[in-house]
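Batch queue: ligand-bound targets. Current item pairs a single chain with nicotinamide-adenine-dinucleotide. No template structures supplied; prediction is de novo from sequence plus SMILES. Inputs echoed for audit trail.
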Amino acid sequence: MATLKFKDPSPYKQELPKAPVADFLYSSFLKDIALQQAERGTAVQMALFGVGRAGSIHLSALAHNPRVKLLYIVDDVQEKWDAIRQYWKLDDTVFLCSNDADKVFLDPRVRAVVVATPTNTHEWIVTTALNHGKDVFCEKPVAESISSAEHCYKQAKKAGKLLFCAFQRRFDPAFNNIKERVRSGEVGHVHTIKTCSRDAQLPSLEYLRSSSGIFHDTAVHDIDLICWILGEYPTCVATQASTLTPEIAEIGDYDTVVITLQFPSGTLGIIDISRLSSHGYDQRIEVFGPRGMLTSSNERPMHGIESHIGFQGGNTMPIYYSFPSRYKMAYLNEMEHFLDILQDKAKPTIMGHETLAVSKIASACEESARTRQFVQLQWEPEYIPPN
Ligand SMILES: NC(=O)c1ccc[n+]([C@@H]2O[C@H](COP(=O)([O-])OP(=O)(O)OC[C@H]3O[C@@H](n4cnc5c(N)ncnc54)[C@H](O)[C@@H]3O)[C@@H](O)[C@H]2O)c1
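Prediction returned. Tokens below.
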């Protein structure tokens, strides 16, 4: 009877606790159950360029999205068209080869274009779409070089259209939580911030050849994440890079990279990247400051299961295998954000100057790897993010 004195009145007589904001899937369920039709607006008419790995991820976010009408899919792999149409039930979507892409650009119904083609094709598709008055969602990197990316953003400004670069990690619930907590001062002034990004699967050599290299293809995600969390850009970077896979050496790229970044406030950043991780898609972050540390460890598709068999010790389930599963929510959230912008429900959270800054930092890191020197970076006032 020692605890009887703690007995509360019936839960039916009390106000029940609300779902925590951290349960983002429950928040989404609440929207569905409230049938918030007004929030969905009129369907945005769109076209998708490229249905490879990234394109398939975006197709899954577009195909049955009540906020979208997918008018066109452009991809030269014609033998896949019927299967894609049947699988996603895209009876009204027109499939085109890239040399017929004019039909998309000249169709006034097409409001926006999603670009998920190889990086070396982005600049032409992006600028042509913008020049024809379409808003553009483009996979990272927007273009192969800073000058090409600048050209794309100049065209966007000239056309008065949106060019949105898809850095999906900003839309990952865990990384959002870390950012908000860092910005609310939980760890104080950040002393060090570390990311680790290791791909479980080696990309195909064909992909690597058109990827614009590990710094612009992969490091840009980590650079963007760190700068977005800190709200500042580095003034000095130093990189060590190796190529441990002979086929990647043959195409002149690296597969293992460590980057250090020094920020104006004194914070140090460390990025650890590898093209191949045998234990799964290794994606972690740690933010350390005088008041403590925040970490986001690897997530698992099934996280509640643990086994204790014989004397093997405790075993959990494997971590996610690759980006389509690890960042599934992030990809969905970024597409919803793009639609929110088009429907005037949100302002873009990834600005052109941020994308260009990331590209400039990636180039500096690459230069440091090749020259084995520290590389200094200077920033014009328009690149300094507000606090
Ligand atoms: N954000 C991420 O996590 C992420 C992940 C993977 C790839 N990406 C980016 O997505 C882009 C595509 O990469 P991927 O891995 O999907 O490549 P992929 O090779 O798997 O797919 C590319 C697709 O584009 C098609 N294509 C090629 N040229 C075309 C053209 N001119 N017009 C229309 N379609 C064309 C190809 O037939 C293919 O189906 C790259 O820029 C890459 O950096 C981003």
